[in-house]
Design goal:
The complex is a heterodimer of chains A (about 850) and B (about 525). Chain A is α+β, with helices and mostly antiparallel strands and about 850 residues long. Chain A contains 24 helices and 33 strands. Helices cover about 30% and strands about 30% of the residues of chain A. In chain A, α18 runs antiparallel to α20. The N and C termini of chain A lie far apart (about 70 Å). In chain B, the strands form two sheets. In chain B, strands 1, 2, 3, 4, 5, 8, 9, 10, 11 and 12 form a ten-stranded mixed β-sheet that branches. The chains are: A alpha+beta (about 850), B alpha/beta (about 525). Chains A and B meet through α10 of A and α4 of B.
Chain lengths: ~850, ~525
């Protein structure tokens, strides 16, 4: 028996990763990797296929040149092969453009060549992000690879080659049974899928004539690699290097024997794919992991039946198994393990917050599309058949090389804008990076907004740049206020892009679903906005201060308190908290109860008005509230959003059709922001609410909920209550501590109308639980500094009505002086002073 | 003072090497290796690695050790494991094709089990069970003792054969472990007054008997059906006032006797009250007709086999934890009661057939592991090895007894087996009549050497047990007669010095077939 092992660790840190996290991984994993490789390359049969993600490489290039120098020395051993990939580790299949895959691969090629000298033609294979691939991506990736002289070799999860229909004929997954009422006889009587032991060979496939080779990744060999520790209390499984070697050899032997029975004398390949950080960073024991891996490498080295190989080298020498993958006729199911069979589109569009990122990207793409069409109009297409010119123009826009075409035209006609166009396109790509689409919280349900928020901060500036360029070409014709189905949910939203803010109002819940603000200097000139992009993107920097200039105020996560349950056994939709929802609460039998679903119902919108340069959007709803021991009462709620260049005023007004004696009713708006502090180096964030001095004497009770106490690596939550003079303004200040030691605050102010009668004021995290009961408790619970802030003033009904006016303003990059406030309410215990 | 727990596991498989594969023969050994010996050893090596104490006393029959050490068995065992893995994979595919995911999952569970046993056998043990035993014994984790060479039932054996069984048992142990064995396991706990003299002559320091041999009273299971289905009345032994909570010196002899504790035995052994009968545990008596794998759980002991529900390993594992905790709690309580009765550091001895764990009681391996973990964590009880016990200060006269039904010899000597004892005695006499004669030819020496092997194989308690209980009776009788006829031909040829080519070829063949105790 002769078998081969392709060891393919994947190195990745996302764009905008926190300094401390990266540095910890560097110390525990990346530096030890170099030590391991230095040792391993001396073994005769050693070979390794490495994939460095684009964001990882940009970071190394920016901050760890000595690492790359050392690595490049090791490359000369000839024992290390590199895999190609995409520049921003994006789920680029979510993009609306056909030229993005080539762009991504090209940028990766440029980067890797610059950093290591290895160009696309020498790639051992191509890493597809999370091995997540529909047929379209495989087609485009194979096409892009060829354009770059690279071999279209991909590793895909072994599950990709199984269709439950074949594995479980007669079960509920049997499509034949499902649709036609009988078990598919073919599935029962022939080999409908590749058996496990044949998934150790290269497999050829093609889509629309684009040929490519795939190699299966077996999840059990990922799991077993470096399984030195227990994952849970009950888990006592530990895999020793010799066990791992045994499993690998055993699997290869079975594959070797099986393929011979088929009369094909191929030598099998076992592909070990795993995140590189499993070495050292997961275990926090790089030394132990290194010993484990070296022992494994040595066992293989001593075994004449086994060796390590490069993917392309293997395929060039041994070819592929000519057994057509059964799955290809069913498309390639996206990796089911973590997308719960929803695929990345299902995950992204199924999560309200993630969908907003894509929707904003679509806005940017539309704008870019408009810009490109305008630019291409400058291109004179010379043809002997003039009627073909517009067709050719359209063809250029549909080309996989559209970006390059536009860039070239710009270089000729608008040389100053060519670099800006490059930056804008770069930013847009970066927002597709994978991590925020799935990363840290739960494999199936999307993740934390941290990376997306920074991406959006740049995207909004990029859109500003596009708008300014279009304006200068007299081609910007977008309405400031639009009524359109922004989030593709079948109902129109109101999209306002005015001065420093972009705002989306949803009729469902009558709330703000997206609000992004820019610093005044960014909106004042193309030059200022461009400089920001140039500074951080001309040579992509690892760390930035973009929040000084651009910040997403509302991009909240879904909140399990708002979930919509379709049926008791499961099936529910998570709903995001959003801003300026408003509920009506009543007090009955000493209990406070929300009535009428005012916070989630659909509002009617009146015709939009414009006054003094402001946009006025009025919406209303009503509900009949059943009361125990009383006749029902009708309650009407009206909200007016007044959008200005640099502020947002919201007026809430509720009234009931008749007054019910001894019934206390409250208007409870929710002033929500997803803004949150961060501390890249020390993980000691700081945020607080400041209450300026008031001349009023009345007393107001403030209830603080889920205040955070950071105790070592643990977080504790506590509540407290305080009596204050009547609150007129609340300033939310959150500190942003950058990787380079720079520290500044952003401020969001909520000014309440004069003489607002306050029953009480609640201040709490915007969202407390995320997919509660569907994920582990610690994954479900959102700590304060990742879930923003919610302020709920309780306004009592008086003579059948209640009103609140609130004016939201913001200022980025401020000092954050608690001394100017009468009262300071810390949201993170002990962080001030 | 803490109570001391002595766990004694007795391991024995008759000589089956090259004596048939399946359904009778080598498969018995392979099953015991895969399901019991290797998982136990791996668990103990792990515990040892984790710095925990195993402190188990293990008896291995010499004939078993010989087989475990055989190159042929090592090769065949790996083949067996591969075949089982392939069969379970085939079962998995079959059940998937039938959309029976529950059974497919169990089949996959078996496939992984056999793969991992092969991994452990090859990678952890390097195919050398003896080496692992030696390692654990040298680390003080195990105390390994020996027993009669072919596991003969000693109380009914003639004196010369008894001495041979003890002597050769000891010799083999020394060959493999390079030290003298201190303890002797009486096969089936079969004791009669006088056997201790043979043990003392061979340098043994201690042996084990059943509880009633020390304490008197009724043996476990007072009324039990006999081999032919009839009810057998059990003798009640006179109460002695002695207790198994302490070791004793056999009256007027310099050897220690340990008595097993009835409570800890009953809890594990009893089909009615013991843990293995739990509804969640794997049903031993029902196997797939396709592959022989056991896919069902006990479900309800009183119901017929066709009512059994599919086995769920995860569910069984939960029960394992509960039962282990319960067992250790019982040990702690028993220890406390013994202290209250005036025993300082009472000794609680549990004796079991090793193959009970894993082979008969599938979850028994995990149970025992949990028990060891719990005892390691218990502040009230400690595991102890016989060599750690101070010399006995009290004397006892021990009853003639065994741990078999009825407490004496009934299981091995009854109406069903009386004829076998006639042959065993005749075979002994036949061999002894030639033993003293010097063999001048190499052929004669070889023949005599093979003759004692055949004699000892005839004496295995296994054939008696199988005939008595009507279990694989045909195979037992076949083996019994084969070894007897081999012995007769050997002794006849030696007696009349009729060594011809036919005999030489035949001798070569039976030396290959009955190939153990190479040093004989």
């Amino acid at each position: 028996m002769k078998g081969h092992i392709a060891f393919c660790p994947h190195f990745h840190q996302p764009h905008f990763q926190l300094h401390r996290t990266r540095e910890e991984a560097f110390k525990n994993s990346y530096r030890p990797w170099l030590q391991l490789l230095s040792q391993a390359v001396s073994l005769d049969s050693f070979y390794i296929n490495l994939h460095f993600s684009g964001p990882f490489l940009y970071w190394l290039r920016d901050t760890k040149p000595e690492f790359l120098d050392h690595f490049n020395t090791l490359l000369t051993s000839g024992k290390i092969g590199l895999l190609g990939g995409l520049a921003d580790e994006p789920f680029i299949q979510l993009s609306s453009r056909t030229d993005d895959v080539l762009y991504q691969m090209q940028k990766y090629d440029e980067l890797l060549t610059r950093v290591t000298g290895v160009s696309a033609a020498d790639w051992q294979g191509i890493h597809l992000v999370e091995r997540e691939c529909g047929e379209m991506l495989l087609f485009q990736a194979a096409q892009a690879a060829r354009a770059l002289q690279a071999s279209p070799i991909f590793y895909l999860d072994a599950e990709t080659f199984y269709v439950p229909h074949f594995s479980y004929p007669g079960s509920s997954h049997d499509y034949c049974l499902k649709h036609f009422g009988f078990t598919d006889p073919v599935a029962k009587t022939t080999i409908g899928h590749l058996p496990q032991s044949l998934l150790f060979f290269g497999l050829r496939d093609e889509i629309n004539g684009q040929e490519y080779l795939s190699l299966p990744v077996h999840s059990q060999f990922r799991y077993q690699l470096l399984k030195r520790q227990s994952f849970t209390g009950e888990d006592r499984i530990k895999i020793k290097p010799k066990h791992y070697y045994f499993y690998i050899k055993d699997a290869l032997e079975q594959a070797y024997n099986h393929v011979r029975k088929l009369g094909k004398p191929l030598e099998p390949l076992l592909l070990i794919f795993e995140d590189a950080e499993k070495f050292g960073q997961w275990s926090k024991d790089p030394q132990g992991d290194r010993e484990w891996l070296m022992e494994f490498f040595t066992l293989v080295d001593k075994d004449p039946d086994l060796d390590f190989v490069g993917l392309k080298d293997y395929l060039n020498t041994h070819g592929y198994l000519d057994t057509y993958p059964a799955s290809s006729s069913h498309s390639y199911p996206e990796w089911e393990n973590w997308t719960a069979r929803r695929g990345i589109r299902g995950v992204t569009f199924g999560d309200e917050r993630l969908r907003r990122v894509i929707c904003r990207l679509r806005d940017a793409e539309r704008l870019q599309d408009h810009f490109e069409k305008t630019v291409l109009q400058k291109l004179t297409i010379q043809t002997s058949l003039p009627e073909l010119a517009p067709v050719m123009q359209r063809s250029l826009l549909n080309s996989a090389e559209r970006y390059q075409i536009v860039e070239k035209v710009l270089e000729h006609h608008y040389p100053d804008w060519s670099p800006l166009y490059r930056l804008v396109n770069r930013v847009r790509h970066l927002v597709y990076q994978e991590d925020p689409k799935w990363a840290s919280r739960h494999p199936s349900y999307g993740s934390s907004p941290f990376y997306d928020m920074q991406g959006l901060a740049y995207l909004e500036i990029a859109m500003q740049v596009l708008k300014e360029m279009l304006k200068e070409m007299n081609a910007f014709d977008e309405e400031e206020t639009q009524c359109r189905d922004w989030d593709m949910d079948g109902q129109d939203e109101i999209v306002v892009e005015k001065g420093q803010q972009a705002l989306v109002l949803d009729r469902v819940g009558g709330c703000i679903v997206y609000q992004h603000v820019l610093a005044p200097q960014v909106t004042e000139s193309l030059e200022q906005a461009s400089q920001l992009l140039i500074k951080d993107f001309k040579r992509l920097r690892a760390y930035n201060h973009i929040y000084k200039n651009s910040y997403p105020l509302v991009m909240t996560e879904s909140d399990s308190d708002l979930k919509q349950q379709f049926y008791p056994e499961g099936g529910r939709r998570e709903v995001t908290r959003n801003s300026m929802r408003c509920a009506i609460w009543i007090t009955m039998m000493d209990q406070e109860v929300a009535v009428g679903n005012f916070d989630t119902c659909t509002y009617s919108i009146e015709p939009i008005q414009f006054q003094d340069g402001k946009t006025l959007i009025k919406m209303s709803t009503q509900a009949t509230v059943e009361l125990v021991g009383h006749d029902p009462v009708n309650i009407f709620l009206e909200k007016t959003f007044i959008v200005d260049e640099n502020s947002l005023q919201v007026q809430f007004h509720a009234h009931q059709d008749r007054v019910v004696e001894n019934l206390q009713i409250f208007l409870v708006p929710e002033l929500v922001t997803s803004a949150a502090p961060s501390d890249e180096r020390h993980f000691k964030p700081c945020a607080w609410v400041g209450i300026p001095p008031s001349s009023q004497e009345k007393q107001a009770v403030v209830q603080m909920h889920n205040v955070v106490a950071i105790e070592g690596d643990k977080i504790r939550y506590f509540d407290y209550e305080k009596e204050l003079a009547t609150v007129e303004r609340m300033d939310y200040l959150y500190r942003l501590d950058g990787a380079d030691g720079e520290s500044y605050y952003n401020r969001i102010s909520y000014q309440l109308g004069e003489n607002t009668p306050l029953h009480r004021l609640e201040i709490r995290p915007a969202v407390s639980n995320y997919y509660q009961d569907y994920v582990y408790e610690d994954q479900s619970r959102l700590s304060y500094h990742t879930s923003g802030l919610m302020i709920r003033p309780w306004i009592p009904f008086d003579k059948g009505q209640a009103s609140l006016q609130v004016q939201a303003t913001w200022e980025l990059n401020v000092q954050g002086d608690p001394g100017i406030y009468e009262e300071v309410l810390p949201l993170i215990d002990g962080c001030i002073g | 003072m803490n109570a001391r727990i002595m766990m004694v596991l007795h391991s024995h498989i008759p000589y089956v090497k090259r004596q048939g594969k399946w359904p009778f023969g080598e498969v018995w050994l392979f099953e015991a290796m895969a399901e019991t010996y290797i998982p136990l050893l791996i668990n103990w090596l792990k515990l040892c690695d984790e710095g925990k104490e195993t402190h188990i006393t293990m008896s291995f029959s010499p004939v078993l050790l010989e087989q475990l050490n055989s190159k042929y068995i090592k090769q065949e065992f790996v083949k067996y494991l591969k075949e089982r893995e392939a069969m379970s994979r085939a079962d998995e595919r079959y059940y998937l094709s039938q959309s029976d995911r529950e059974f497919a999952r169990i089949a996959a569970y078996y496939a992984n089990f056999y793969r991992d046993i092969r991994r452990d056998y090859e990678m952890e043990l390097d195919r050398d069970v003896i080496q692992a035993l030696r390692f654990l014994q040298n680390r003080g984790q195990l105390e390994i003792i020996t027993t009669a060479a072919t596991h003969a039932y000693l109380p009914l054996l003639d004196r010369a054969s008894l001495e041979d069984q003890v002597y050769w048992g000891k010799r083999l142990y020394e060959q493999l472990f390079s030290i003298e064995p201190q303890g002797f396991w009486l096969p089936e706990c079969g004791y009669f007054q006088g056997i201790e003299d043979v043990l003392i002559e061979n340098g043994f320091k201690y042996f084990f008997v059943d509880s009633h041999a020390i304490e008197g009273g009724k043996p476990l299971g007072a009324m039990s059906p006999g081999g032919n289905g009839e009810e057998v009345e059990i003798e009640t032994f006179a109460a002695t006032g002695l207790s198994t909570y302490r070791p004793y010196r056999v009256e007027d002899r310099d050897i220690t006797v340990f008595g097993r504790n009835s409570m800890v035995s009953q809890q594990v052994w009893s089909a009615d009250y013991g843990y293995p009968g739990d509804e969640a545990y794997r049903e031993f008596h029902k196997s797939s007709e396709r592959s022989g794998f056991k896919y069902w759980r006990v479900t309800n002991r009183s119901q017929s086999l066709d009512k059994k529900q599919p086995y769920d390993p995860d569910r069984a594992q939960l029960k394992v934890k509960q039962h282990a905790a319960h067992f250790v709690q019982n040990l702690e309580n028993t220890g406390k009661r013994a202290v209250e009765m005036g025993f300082n550091s009472p000794l609680i001895i549990g004796c079991y057939d090793t193959e009970l764990f894993g082979h008969w009681w599938w979850e028994g391996i995990n149970w025992l592991n949990e028990v060891l973990n719990c005892i390691n964590n218990s502040p009230e009880i400690d595991l102890v090895l016989p060599s750690q016990i101070s010399p006995a200060t009290h004397e006892a006269r021990v009853f003639e007894s065994s741990w078999g039904m009825g407490g004496k010899h009934y299981v091995w000597e009854n109406a069903e087996t009386a004829w076998m004892w006639d042959i065993i005695r005749k075979a002994g006499e036949e061999y002894q009549s030639l033993k003293g004669l010097e063999q001048e030819t190499l052929m004669g020496q070889r023949a005599m050497s093979q003759a004692i092997k055949e004699l000892m194989l005839i004496q295995s308690s296994d054939w008696l047990f199988m005939v008595s209980n009507n279990l694989t009776r045909d195979y037992a009788m076949k083996r019994f007669f084969e070894h007897y006829t081999k012995l007769l031909r050997l002794t006849h040829t030696v007696r009349y010095q009729q060594f011809d080519d036919t005999f030489r070829d035949w001798l070569r063949r039976i030396q290959y077939e009955d190939d153990f105790f190479s040093y004989l």
